[in-house]
Amino acid sequence: MPWHPHLWHPTTQVALHPEPLRVSGADGCVLQLDDGRSLIDAISSWWVTLHGHSEPSIAAAVGLQAQVMEQVIFANFSHEPAEQLATRLAALSGLDRLFFSDNGSTAVEVALKMAWQWWRNQGSDRRRLVAFEGAYHGDTFGAMAVGDRSVFTEAYDELLFDVARISWPHTHWGDSDIETRETQALNELDDALAVPTAGVILEPLIQGASGMRMVRPEFLRAVEARVRDRGTLLIADEVMTGFGRTGSLFASQRAGIQPDLMALSKGLTGGFLPMGGTLASERIFAGFISEEPLKTFFHGHSFTANPLGCAAALASLDLLEQHPERFLHFEGRHRPHLEALTAHSMVKQVRCLGTMAAFELDCGSTNYLNPVGRQLQRLCLEDGVYIRPLGNVVYLLPPLCISDKQLQNCYSAIGDGITKLS
Ligand SMILES: Cc1ncc(COP(=O)(O)O)c(C=O)c1O
Prior knowledge:
By secondary structure, this protein is an alpha/beta fold. It folds into 2 domains: 23-54 and 326-421, Aspartate Aminotransferase, domain 1, CATH 3.90.1150; 57-322, Aspartate Aminotransferase, domain 2, CATH 3.40.640. It has 14 helices and 16 strands. The model has no long low-confidence stretch (mean pLDDT 97).
């Protein structure tokens, strides 16, 4: 299938990458291709498809809502689906206020702007933002600035504001010097927080795009203790980790931390519709209430609180509440397969968290541009499994509906692919 003459695909280099596969349908974990083949979507279509593709109860909820009210301006107006969603997310997250946007990057932008302006509204000079090495928070400018510098940001580096960057002590099975690296990172954080800081942003428990890099809950609790000690704000980017992905509804809960601001997207609508949300504590919200107009949070997107997205999100929350077993015990499903994979000499640094499993292919460079991932992707496609390694990091992040047989197929395809590569 040739490249379409009028499309421009994300993070795709036409001169180097193969043409996209044309998809005609998607059901559960399976993508149906135009040429008659079917593929297991082992990465939930960029981590968004939560329960499964075309999940009937979400499809029905969106269809019903579309017949009642498809969209309405959210300044001057409110509506039932938005109010219900905000109420339910507040009860689940411990953060009382929901601000809507359209995607993960904008959910992060909103959190950063809220943190920044909250201090300014109080007349404080806290200016510094603290972020972690390896972080990825999205592709808009603020999100890129707090994200680590990488191939994604290189072209724009001189436009990005500075942040204090702290080491991220990621770990894996059999890691023997994790305490030392955690102590070092916490010392760096102590130094950074000596400067008046507006907020600390992190991906709780696991950094996604930089290579599924997992930290221990105790590290995050130590970070939170320092944030509280210094009276600054903690921003949790749960765009990838939210909604059961880590084996808890939110990674922050699994880690035992309570952020002041939380960015959500991807699984928010069960992966049906583009929607972002930033949850804020009542204390943050209160800092914007004033008769001075300049203390307003001047931010708003055309599709804020789109009723179809809200309906999808409510139906998705219903499913999570009805079937917690689908995400609570996922780690146990990955574990035996991962143990078997360790027999391959190329497989290193195995780790697993909730529905997400990852390991590294030991082949020199750990760079995102390492071609080994694309080679393995091609081999897995031949076996009917779609993965999208991050350089030499191979991971699975399947929809919750994946059957044992389908999961087995994913691991078999990866195992066979690695054998061929080595
Ligand atoms: C942790 C995290 N934050 C933010 C984003 C950006 O989300 P979006 O691609 O919806 O803008 C991503 C995307 O992968 C992410 O993983």
